[in-house]
Design a protein that fits this description.
Main location: membrane
Oligomer: single chain
InterPro entries: ATPase_P-typ_cyto_dom_N, ATPase_P-typ_P_site, ATPase_P-typ_TM_dom_sf, ATPase_P-typ_transduc_dom_A_sf, HAD-like_sf, HAD_sf, P-type_ATPase_IV, P-type_ATPase_N
Catalytic activity: ATP + H2O + phospholipidSide 1 = ADP + phosphate + phospholipidSide 2
Number of strands: 37
Distance between the termini: 79 Å
Family: Belongs to the cation transport ATPase (P-type) (TC 3.A.3) family. Type IV subfamily.
Membrane topology: Multi-pass membrane protein
């Protein structure tokens, strides 16, 4: 008590001097995002250890057994000798004596010079198709099966492997180059009692490192001392989690005053083994005979930057690949495109078709051998006997059965390109091109954050065009996560009804010191009545207001910093903190005259209406997922002790003494409900005075808990529970988290496109519903079903009641629709996290599926299914038959529950899911969905690091899905079908030829033309079209969201289109083969000349086929398509002028006749006219939405009608495959 009084008197004597917070040097500005207490005995500071669940904010656990942060944070685990790492301070030799810990060298590259070839080939041959082509190439090396030249047969596979290897090698080279730059950076390391520069890669665990201002941390190290006398260091963790706000870390007082260059520092740190939890750390330090506890606030991690601190010393505890940053550097999850999965089914069909063709050839060959068995002795190629030597032997004949077997294998070799190996490399190149244009799209560029769209996974671009479900976080995803204080309830009085003073009308509270004006950086609208009361100190209302704003200014971890302005006489105070909510509350307190101007590890200074007052920070209990509140114990200027508490209403009213002022409590509860209904985020504020004995009891318990070696977190939580009791309510605050620009329009567009939007939030039900209305997720026409129960039995009863309501609503809706044609009744399901515990963890999961889906069933379907049948099979059948509800709003959900909901719908419904979020609590949801999108917002980069795609604003989801997703899906679908057609038509020409050559598989087309067909002749056009073609313009796709349904209904790639393509291919191959055959029947033209004709004819045919389907022509498209035809002519001529290859000069013989050119023309007409006729017929008599919209574009472009109306297919109850 005397110490506090003396400290305060000394402050009062010095209050005429320039205050510490004004100085730009941070050496006098100390802050702590921890809790400390003032000790009369030692004056030291102890801290509570805090560990967050996967993010900077404490997670919210609403009845979720699996959501507790203790499951994720190793900081809550006990440290024993087996699980501990022993680090001897300033003794790396002893530290690494027993176990050689990792050095600080990092390696993100996958390959080395020695391992590149075997490892890359091993990874590439994970594709079964590559193994297939390898087997084909090996078979062709056998003399009995050598159809092609041995070198030519290896070329296609070798080319694909080479291209992929070059791409992988270049990417890995860039990683190695980046690693080399990083590893060779220099840092100051204590060597032989003096600091010397050392390369990062040579640093070792146990060494002392010195970091200067604005330098990046080379490793994870425990702070020993800083330039600040209280041991505080400011760091920026942008490189680690994307957060730009400054955070505070501090050194223990036991090491703060030690100078390692002048005195020997020795000690032992026992810490947990390396782990990925960047928000948790548990360790103990033995130094000078004392054992001191260490927590997350004592360690600074690799990748952070030291800010506003001249220097800091630390001891290396984790280095290189064992640092938390590197352990979290796992990259984006690997996912597989659904279109590629479906493509594998068609490849199996093609494989069966290939086997059928080979079987036909081999069986017919066997029959031919039987018919000509008497002629085989002297027949060329099949002479049974060799009479060239005195001894007569069998010659090139292996018997009837083996001949059939060999012919089958030879057929597989000849027809091998039926499985398009070039398709895989084409898909990769097309995806790279698509990603380039998505990244460069200025319409998905956010100027405010200077952020472009990021494509972190190149293999699922086309999935963006098939999304049916969007699961979205709310805070920071739909909203800006930039909090603005709106109003408050203080002492039972609501201060939200009056007219607030606008920013233009107010000058804001300011502080003048020696001619300089200090003003909060952010202005807050104030209530005139409340502003007047804040200046009254001696009334009951004034005291309530005084305590309320003291709580807002003190109960936080905010750091006040000064910012220079263009006016030398004006400086701004910028409140830096990890929580936007805390920032908003501190700015609000400053606007009403309670300005936080200084924070050190032991005290804070608040300017109250022009009078600076110092409060000793004796302890601070931060938020955790169990308490859902935080508290601070202050030593006040009047030598009293007070505990201020703020937190969620669900937990605060449990610790508020209602007997003290029941009317105030009741009024505050009513005001909270009012604020929540407006979509505001609320916190309840309370306090109580501590007697001297209560304070001493708390101080003793707190000191024992904070220095405990085992179970420290649980002990500190118990201490917090004991002190946060019997509170008197001060009031409640209301903060607005504004919607991001364009969110309502984006959600409306998504719903119009038939996409089901689910919002998963930790907010209260009232807040979530209000946000739902303002974002147009909910509408007044929707019927809301609310499931909000605390037990399994009540939850089951609610679901049963919901089933009855759904049945009634569906019946009435069907009757209304038949009479008037109106849309069906839309139902919104609103469910809370406690209910989800029972639904996701018990058999009630099956019943909630019925609630989600029942209203979408027709009357006949409902009559044919017993809704109340509780058997598992009936529930699954009902779920499979039904569609999902229009809107689902999940409140009070924990991170694992978000992932559970996504998994539920992903596994049970055959639809594409997309999850979008911005925080660490969204990571599991993002990784669970088919497509995960991270918002690079205010909550760090954990969501971005775990995502497939990343962007800055939720509204960018509309152009991403409607434009790029649609284009990518249409292009990739067409490219896959076209590749099937392109290769199959060539194989069928070879097949028809085999039928006319005694099934001997003698090919007219040269080996090199067969090889180059998929590589040079026809590869480039399909890649160019796959990257650049646009079936519809961006404007049309955004104007008519219904067009997105083509991807959901899989209209561009399905089994029907595949078989239609095969039938078209069959006809075109007949035309391509038989037109030249009939034209040259009876002539003396050789097979090589006919082979050149067939090669050129097929190339022209497939390129014109492609040209018929191109919608948007660019110069590069023309160059690719027509250039490929020209390249084919050139290659054929080059091959035929080489005398060592078969068919020497064949092309020049046949090309000199008019019949050759007539055949080319005739083949093109005969093959493509049927396709052209069918295409015109469908376009004019049975058009789909895409064709209708395309015609509308033509009309608008010709200015005939800009107000044309189009009729879209309904987006409800879309037909399934």
């Amino acid at each position: 008590m005397d110490s506090n009084s003396n400290s305060y008197s000394q402050f009062q004597n010095e209050n005429s001097s320039l205050p510490d917070f004004i100085r730009n040097s941070s050496s006098q500005r100390s802050s702590s995002s921890i809790q400390s207490f003032h000790s009369k005995a030692s004056g030291g500071h102890s801290v509570k250890e805090v560990s967050f669940e996967l993010g900077s904010k404490p997670s919210v656990r609403y009845g979720s057994r699996g959501a507790d942060s203790e499951r994720f944070s190793s900081s809550y685990k006990e440290i024993n000798d087996q699980d501990a790492r022993l680090v001897y301070i300033n003794d790396p030799e002893k530290t690494n004596e027993k176990f050689e810990f990792a050095k600080n060298s990092i390696r993100t590259g996958k390959y080395s010079i020695l391992t590149f070839l075997p490892r890359n080939l091993f990874e590439q041959f994970h594709r079964v198709a590559y193994i297939y082509f390898l087997v084909i190439a090996i078979l062709n090396q056998l003399p009995q099966l050598a159809v092609f030249g041995r070198g030519a047969s290896i070329m296609p596979l070798a080319f694909v492997l080479l291209v992929t290897a070059v791409k992988d090698g270049y990417e890995d080279y860039r990683r190695h180059r980046s690693d080399n730059i990083e590893n060779n950076r220099l840092a100051w390391v204590l060597v032989n009692d003096q600091f010397q520069q050392k390369k990062w890669k040579d640093m070792r665990v146990g060494e002392i490192v010195k970091i200067s201002a604005n330098e990046t941390l080379p490793c994870d190290m425990v702070l020993l001392s800083t330039s600040d006398t209280t041991g505080v260091a400011y760091i920026q963790t942008t490189n680690l989690d994307g957060e730009s706000n400054l955070k505070t870390r501090y050194a223990k007082q036991e090491t703060q005053m030690k100078n390692p260059e002048k005195e020997k520092i020795s000690g032992l740190i026992k810490c947990e083994k390396p782990n990925r939890n960047i928000y948790g750390f548990q360790a103990n330090m033995e130094i000078d005979g004392k054992r001191v506890s260490l927590g997350p606030s004592n360690i600074i991690l690799r990748g952070c930057e030291l800010k506003n601190t001249s220097w800091a010393l630390g001891i290396v505890v984790y280095a290189g690949g064992e640092t938390k940053a590197m352990l979290n550097n796992s990259g984006a999850p690997s996912k597989r495109s659904r279109l590629e999965t479906h493509m594998n089914r068609e490849i199996i069909y093609l494989s069966i078709f290939l086997v059928v063709l080979c079987t036909i050839v081999s069986v017919c060959h066997g029959a031919w051998l039987r018919r000509h068995k008497d002629d085989l002795v002297l027949m060329q190629f099949y002479r049974k006997k060799d009479y060239s030597e005195p001894k007569v032997d069998d010659y090139n004949y292996y018997g009837w059965g083996m001949e059939i077997f060999f012919v089958f294998l030879m057929s597989v070799i000849v027809f091998q390109i039926m499985i398009p190996i070039s398709l895989y490399i084409s898909m990769e190149l097309v995806r790279v091109g698509q990603a380039y244009f998505m990244i460069r799209d200025d319409r998905m560029y956010d100027k405010a954050s200077n952020s472009r769209f990021q494509c972190r996974a190149l293999n699922i671009n086309e999935d963006l065009g098939q999304i049916k479900y969007v699961f979205s976080d709310k805070t920071g995803t739909l909203t800006e996560n930039k909090m603005e204080f709106q109003c408050a309830s203080i002492g039972g009085v609501d201060y939200s009804g009056g007219k607030a003073i606008s920013e233009d009308e107010q000058t804001g509270y300011s502080l003048r010191v020696e001619g300089q004006v200090f003003r909060p950086k952010m202005k807050v609208k104030v209530d005139p009545e409340l502003l007047s009361l804040s200046k009254q100190k001696h009334t009951d209302e004034g005291r309530h207001v005084h305590d309320f704003f003291i709580a807002l200014a003190a109960c936080n971890t905010i750091v006040p910093l000064t910012v220079e302005t263009s006016d030398p006489a004006l400086k701004l105070i910028d409140y830096q903190g990890e929580s936007p909510d805390e920032q908003a509350l501190v700015y609000a307190a400053a606007a009403y005259g309670f300005m936080l101007i200084e924070r050190t590890s032991g005290h804070i200074v608040i300017d109250i209406q022009g009078e600076r007052q110092r409060y000793n920070v004796l302890g601070l209990h931060e938020f955790d997922s169990d308490r859902k509140r935080m508290s601070v114990i202050l030593g006040c200027p009047d030598n009293t002790f007070k505990v201020f508490v703020k937190g969620a209403d669900t937990t605060m009213f449990n610790v508020i003494d209602r007997s003290l002022n029941s009317n105030t409590v009741k009024a505050t509860e009513d005001h909270l409900h009012l604020y929540s209904s407006k979509g505001l985020r609320t916190l309840v504020v309370g306090m109580r005075d501590l007697s001297a004995s209560e304070f001493e009891q708390w101080q003793s318990s707190y000191e024992r808990a904070s220095t405990a070696l085992m179970g420290r977190a649980a002990l500190l939580r118990k201490v917090a529970y004991n002190v946060e009791t019997s509170l008197s309510v001060l009031g409640a605050s209301a903060i607005e988290d504004k919607l991001q620009q364009g969110v309502p329009e984006a959600i409306e567009s998504l719903r119009n496109a038939g996409i089901r939007v689910w919002v998963l939030t930790g907010d209260k039900q009232e807040t979530a519903i209000s946000i739902g209305y303002s974002s147009k997720l909910l509408t007044s026409k929707m019927t809301q079903i609310v499931v909000n129960n605390n037990s399994k039995e009540s939850c089951k009863k609610s679901l049963e009641d919901a089933l009855v309501m759904c049945k009634k609503l569906t019946t009435d809706s069907d009757a209304t629709r038949r009479g008037s044609g109106a849309r069906k009744t839309e139902i919104a399901l609103i469910i809370d996290g406690t209910s989800l515990v029972h639904i996701l963890d018990t058999e009630l999961e099956e019943q909630v599926l019925i609630v989600y889906c029942t209203y979408s069933l027709s009357i006949s379907e409902l009559q044919s299914i017993s809704i109340f049948n509780s058997s598992l099979s009936i529930n699954l059948q009902l779920f499979n038959l039904s569609s999902k509800c229009t809107v689902v709003l999940c409140c009070r959900v924990a991170p694992l529950q978000k992932a559970g909901i996504v998994a539920l719908m992903k596994n049970r419904a055959n639809e594409m899911t997309l999850a979008i979020g911005d925080g660490a609590n969204d990571v599991s949801m993002i990784q669970m969905a088919d497509v995960g999108i991270g918002i690079s917002g205010q909550e760090g980069r954990q969501a971005v690091m775990a995502s497939d795609f990343a962007m800055a604003q939720f509204r960018f989801l509309v152009p991403l899905l409607f434009v790029h997703g649609h284009w990518n899906y249409q292009r990739m679908s067409y490219m896959i079908l076209y590749n099937f057609y392109r290769n199959a038509v060539f194989v069928l020409v070879l097949f028809w030829y085999a039928l006319f050559t005694s099934f001997t598989l003698t090919t007219a087309i040269t080996d090199w033309s067969s090889v180059l067909y998929s590589v040079i002749y026809t590869a480039l056009p399909t890649i160019v079209v796959g990257v650049l073609d646009k079936d519809l313009s961006r404007t049309t796709l955004l104007r008519y969201p219904q067009l997105y349904g083509t991807g959901q209904r899989q209209e561009s790639y399905n089994g029907k289109l595949f078989w239609v393509t095969i039938m078209d291919t069959l006809w075109q191959s007949i035309a391509a083969f038989f037109v030249p055959l009939l034209a040259y029947w009876g002539s003396d033209v050789d097979r090589s000349s006919l082979g050149d004709l067939w090669t050129i004819a097929v190339v022209i045919l497939v390129n014109i086929h492609l040209a018929m389907d191109v919608v948007r022509w660019y110069w590069i498209t023309h160059a690719a398509i027509w250039g490929s035809i020209v390249a084919t002519f050139i290659c054929v001529m080059v091959i035929d002028v080489l005398p060592f290859l078969p068919g020497y000069w064949a092309f020049f013989h046949i090309a000199g006749t008019k019949l050759f050119w007539a055949c080319l023309f005739g083949i093109t007409i005969a093959a493509l006219v049927p396709r052209f006729v069918v295409k015109i017929f469908i376009q004019y008599f049975r058009p789909d939405d895409i064709q209708i919209a395309r015609e509308l574009e033509k009309v608008e472009n010709s200015r005939e009608s800009r107000d044309a109306e189009i009729e879209m297919n309904p987006i409800f109850d879309p037909p399934r495959r």
